[in-house]
Fold this sequence. Notes:
Number of domains: 2
Helix content: 40-55%
Distance between the termini: 28 Å
Shape: globular
Strand order of the largest sheet: 2-6-7-1-5-4-3
Largest sheet: 7 strands, antiparallel
Number of strands: 16
Strand content: 15-25%
Structural class: alpha+beta
Number of helices: 11
Amino acid sequence: MIRAYKFLLRPTVGQQGALSAMLRDHCTLYNAALQERRDAYRHASKTTVRYGMQSDQLKEIRALDVDGQGRWSFSSQQATLRRLEKAFSDFFRRIKEGRKPGYPRFRSAKRFDTVDFPKDGDGCRWDSTPHEPVTRVRLRGIGHVRVHQHRAVVGRVKTISVKREGKRWYVILSVDVGRPDPLPATGSAVGIDMGINNFLADSSGAMVPNPRFGTKVREELDGAQRALSRCERDSQRRRKAAETLARLHRKVRRQRLDHAHKTALNLVRAHDFIAHEDLRILNMTKRPAPKPVPGAAGEFLPNGAAAKSGLNRAISEVGWGVFLAILAAKAEGAGRQVMAVDLRNTSRRCPACGHTAEENRPTQSRFSCVSCGHTAHADTVGAQNVLRAGLARREAATA
């Protein structure tokens, strides 16, 4: 099992300059490799340049630019070229699938914020000074950088990445922890229903309220965004305004992640089997199609785009996808089973008699069966139906 650790770096002033230079040179390498591919396809009879061809040129590039590209790890530069190769692979895959292709774009120095080291010990070394009380990571061209290690690293470090977030620097470790010991069995199974008013409801009737971290600072975010839009480009004032806005977004993201981790951990500790709806979040947040007026070019009928925009923002803010990914990862490490089930009619089917009708849910939060009269909270009913479908699917899979 692979587990990721993220620690704050505490570089010196000189090391911060070296880290920025490393990102800048890797960004230049990425853009140059992209330009070579574009030129080869356009002007050399549609010649395709692949990763292997560009990787073979690295030795010559490093020899010609000793004080630039030659300062950094050869393996990290290969990882940057692999990133471009993956961008093109995804581009061609989307074409075959009939989706919007999204041709790989050039990266600005402001948007290129990560350098990968494919192997610990090759251009980098985790815990490079084990005899000292302070943990350090050694990076070629930069030196031994102090790490704020707030938790122990268990397992064998496989890859190391250095990432810039605003004015802060982080090191991200990919660690092979083997097969962890499962948690003791509880004999409990639960179904969960994700929502917006409530973050989730489980089949036992418990509710986890939606913390709405983004809504609480919406006025501050809007004010910071307006202040940024009034600044001149490339000015010192604009850089400060951008940092203020990024700091607010970073705080909301951390709060959302913290809430998701704690909620998922409580579920994993209490239940052996967890069923949830198979949410298609990308489809749920699509913009409504425009409705042109027949016979009137350039005129459109109302399509509810404003209301859908508010719903999309609420769905994005609650963070269903992040939570479900965290839940799956924690369940794997704890030896629990997580299963996604079809969400159709989960909130319209009566758990008592099985009658399914749209009239069973007269309001957003109230469920009242028109057949047997069973009443409950609509989210609880949805969670009970999700659990029932999950158990049935598990039995069918083991049969």
